[in-house]
Design brief:
CATH topology: Metallo-beta-lactamase, Chain A
Shape: globular
Radius of gyration: 18 Å
CATH superfamily: Ribonuclease Z/Hydroxyacylglutathione hydrolase-like
Number of strands: 13
Structural class: alpha/beta
Strand order of the largest sheet: 6-5-4-3-2-1-13
CATH class: Alpha Beta
Low-confidence stretches: 251-258
Distance between the termini: 27 Å
Number of domains: 1
CATH architecture: 4-Layer Sandwich
Order of helices and strands: EEEEEHHEEEEEHEHEHHE
Mean pLDDT: 92
Strand content: 25-35%
Number of helices: 6
Largest sheet: 7 strands, mixed
Helix content: 10-25%
């Protein structure tokens, strides 16, 4: 499997049989940031699956519907809130796409899209997280499912965030995940690493890509420096910038602890 970090929370996972794109948006959509990620070239003979976890502008872009003109074997798996958002195009043929090429999903449900099994989790912010089983592989993309603690929010609000995040992550404890994409949001400052720590403590994930970093990748080294077990820390990929690709080979050994 080749994984490409496009930017922010957008990743591409390409196998011998298919291409999966998660949470794409084009540069200029998010004010104040210059995202430079570019989608790689795809083999048009492969099925293309486009996932969007929710309608926020840094996770969804109506631009994706134009890809149906170039890729015959395309299918969209979209959080249901996208259908209701103001950015969702209701003209120019999108209604026709819905009938055959779009699957709208809700939290805490199971779906079958062709030969893929997809489980959704309820986000602690908006929309869903995706757990995808295909080709004897399991991929997890969190979307905005994260432990959203903030300095100054207070114990009541932060406590509620902790409980909701733990409740969601516990639903993954019986799964063995090959590749996971998990937030490490630099805006949270002293709380930025809490969600990823909890995820790694409770979920069997072989390779973990931090995401939603707002172009500040320094938190990856900080996070890994606090893990005493080197093999366990090695599960976290050292992303240094946009447009980086990684070949997923043998994963680190299981059984290590933080």
């Amino acid at each position: 499997m080749i994984v490409t970090f496009v930017h922010h929370s957008c990743f591409v996972a390409e196998t011998d049989e298919r291409v999966l794109i998660f949470d794409y948006f084009k540069n200029g959509r998010v004010k104040g940031y210059n995202f430079t990620g570019v989608l790689p070239e795809f083999d048009k003979s492969k099925p293309l699956y486009v996932f969007a976890s929710h309608a926020h502008q840094d996770h969804f872009d109506p631009e994706i519907f134009k890809w149906a003109d170039a890729y015959e074997k395309i299918h969209y798996i979209l959080s249901k809130d996208i259908r209701r958002c103001g950015a969702y195009p209701r003209r120019n043929g999108t209604n026709a796409l819905e009938k055959e090429k779009i699957t709208f999903v809700q939290p805490d449900k199971h779906y079958e899209v062709n030969d893929m099994e997809i489980k959704t989790l309820r986000s602690t912010d908006a929309g869903v997280a995706f757990l995808i089983h295909m080709e004897n592989k399991t991929i997890y993309h969190a979307g905005d499912l994260n432990l959203w603690k903030w300095d100054g929010a207070g114990d009541l609000v932060n406590g509620k965030e902790v409980r909701e995040y733990k409740r969601a992550i516990h639903k993954l404890e019986d799964d063995k995940i090959d590749v996971a994409f998990v937030p490490l949001d630099s805006r949270q400052k002293k709380y930025a690493e809490d969600g990823l720590f909890y995820f790694m403590e409770h979920v069997d994930a072989k390779v973990i890509f931090p995401m939603h970093m707002w172009q500040d990748y320094s938190y990856i080294a900080s996070f890994k420096s606090k893990i005493s077990n080197g093999a366990f820390a090695a599960r976290v990929v050292d992303i240094s910038g946009e447009n980086e690709s990684y070949e997923i080979l043998d994963a680190p050994q299981k059984g290590a602890n933080l």
